[in-house]
TrEMBL record:
The keyword Cell inner membrane does not apply. Pfam families: Na_H_antiporter (PF03553). This is Transporter (NhaC family). The keyword Cell membrane applies. It comes from the Bacteria. The chain crosses the membrane at residues 6-22, 29-46, 61-80, 101-121, 141-170, 191-210, 251-268, 275-296, 308-326, 347-368, 388-409, 430-448. It is a multi-pass membrane protein. It is found in: Cell membrane. Its main location: membrane. InterPro entries: Na/H_Antiport_NhaC-like_C. Residues 186-449 form the Na+/H+ antiporter NhaC-like C-terminal domain.
């Protein structure tokens, strides 16, 4: 495996430093990626950078991400335009009477929408703002809870896009027979420790058993003055329009389209793209027939909603460019080679989790890291006599950590967009909680590595 050694860390470290200094993610990604291409070949760095952009835009994976995220933005826009989002928030406010109840309601809603982390982040974030705003909850706290029930919950549910993808990898690696991927995935779920810890840390934060820490404490103090959003949040915010109809908005305008979305996604074998296209087609027809809005107004909302996602999509797209330069510099092989001398039966789970968690945090690549690392970790576990499902669980946990903690991870960007929260502020304020969850996960893997 060819790599640039420790120099391969430079692009990712540059991105993190620039993001912390400027509080701007897109610009930080451009800077870090370009520096990587300069290191590879300063003479052709600009053409290499532009070629990488073109290759990323031609990739089927980024095309899928752009369509899914953009169309989710369209659907959320339609729900807001119909008044359905307000009706849903108003309905919850009849039962939610305290701050703690508002935070717990957000957590419970996140647990229910487990099909896809994109769907989870955008739906829960956009629908719960009005509820948490009533109790002066800072947007950073809302974004933390939303993000904590995205990837960390999706990896625990066999009927999710994450589970379907990983199940395919298990079949391709021969861990299970063809067609038995999900059955195998079920055996790994008890060992996806980070998902369990991160998801169930949230209610402890909600009821203040774990108090606001670090930057979150400052956000709470600011929110007490009535300033709920951190600075520079407008750029990434998912625009929520005023509803068009003179009619009283109905709860069904929110609930029915979301149910159609979930059912269609499941029907199409957990394909979020087909699910959201079906849901939009249904919603446009449903609202037109219900005279909530005209067909022309609904279609206009589809395009406006897609447009509100452009900045978030630009960040996600640029994160793929960073992934490209990291791959060319061999970041993942370098980290794996660096930790391999320390691997043994007892420490394989925790070392796999820590090393791959750092890679996913630095690169913003989660499914890609799974595809690279599982073919390495699985035979290592088999040769060392490590429980195969424990080893696989540690790898899956690492991806969930990266998705949860990375500045420019897709679920992080969408959680920030849906909650109207600067994504750097979101990541910095939730970092103490992700580190707590990561630390507990390490301890559990140490114990399991010595006992199983």
């Amino acid at each position: 495996m060819q790599n640039w050694g420790i120099i391969s860390l430079v692009p990712a470290v540059t991105v993190i430093i620039l993001a912390l200094i400027t509080r701007k993610t897109f610009e930080a990604l451009v800077g870090g990626s370009f520096i990587g291409f300069v290191i590879i070949s300063y003479k052709s760095s600009f053409s290499d950078f532009t070629n990488s952009l073109l290759l990323v835009m031609q990739d089927a994976a980024i095309g899928w991400v752009i369509l899914v995220c953009g169309l989710f933005g369209s659907l959320i826009y339609l729900l807001a335009q119909s008044g359905g989002t307000n009706a849903f928030s108003g309905y919850l406010l009849k039962f939610v009477k305290t701050r703690k109840e508002a935070l717990l309601a957000t957590w419970l809603l996140g647990l229910c929408i487990f099909i896809d982390d994109y769907l989870n982040a955008l739906t829960v974030g956009s629908s719960m703002k009005k509820v948490t705003d009533r109790f002066n909850v800072p947007r950073e706290m809302l974004a933390y809870i939303v993000d904590s029930t995205a990837a960390p919950v999706c990896v625990l549910i066999p009927l999710s896009t994450w589970a379907i993808f990983i199940s395919g990898l298990l079949e391709s690696e021969g861990v299970v027979a063809q067609g038995e991927g999900l059955a195998g995935y079920l055996q790994a779920i008890p060992y996806i420790t980070y998902g369990w810890v991160a998801a169930f840390l949230v209610p402890l934060v909600a009821i203040n058993l774990i108090p606001p820490l670090g930057a979150m404490k400052k956000a709470e103090e600011r929110a007490k003055k009535g300033i709920l959003k951190p600075p520079d949040s407008d750029t990434i915010s998912l625009e929520i329009p005023e509803y068009l109809s003179d009619k009283e908005p109905k709860l069904s305008y929110f609930v029915i389209p979301i149910l159609v979305l979930i059912c269609a996604t499941v029907y199409f074998d957990i394909d979020a793209l087909r699910g959201v296209i079906t849901a939009i087609a249904f919603t446009v027809a449903y609202f037109a027939m219900s005279k909530v809005m005209s067909f022309a107004q609904a279609m206009d909302g589809v395009f406006k909603g897609f447009k509100t996602m452009l900045y978030a999509l630009a960040i996600v797209t640029m994160s793929f460019v960073l992934k490209d330069v990291n791959d060319q510099m061999g970041l993942t092989p370098y980290v794996i080679e660096s930790v391999s001398p320390w691997l043994n039966k007892e420490y394989l789970p925790v070392i796999a989790f820590v090393s791959l968690a750092l890679i996913t945090f630095a690169t913003g690549s989660f499914w890609g890291v799974y595809a690279i690392s599982l073919p390495v970790i699985i035979p290592l576990a088999q040769s060392m006599g490590v429980d195969i499902w424990l080893a696989i669980g540690s790898v899956i946990s690492a991806g969930a950590f990266g998705s949860h903690a990375c500045f420019y991870g897709d679920a992080t960007i969408l959680s920030a967009s849906a909650t109207e929260c600067n994504n750097v502020a979101h990541v910095v304020t939730q970092l103490p909680y992700t580190l707590i969850a990561g630390g507990i996960t390490c301890i559990i893997y140490l114990i399991l590595g010595h006992t199983i």
